[in-house]
Predict the structure.
Amino acid sequence: MTDVNRNEVFEQVRNALVELFEIDAADITPEAQLYQELDLDSIDAVDLVVHLQNLTGKKIKPEEFKSVRSVNDVVDAVIELLKES
């Protein structure tokens, strides 16, 4: 996939957070912190990874997600995955 649209990826990540964790979409900004502001825990993070794997059809290595702290970090990780084809 070429020229991954950052806004589209953000929308998908936001939709996943709303769908999986019933987070208010208005609270999900690129800068929002997953653990502090959105109240996710490590189990939630695993659920999010599994959901994104299903969306992208790509395998996400756990170590790639260890440094993820904000919604923007998730978007960056997904974009990196989509570039690897």
Q: What stands out?
A: The first helix runs from residue 6 to 21.
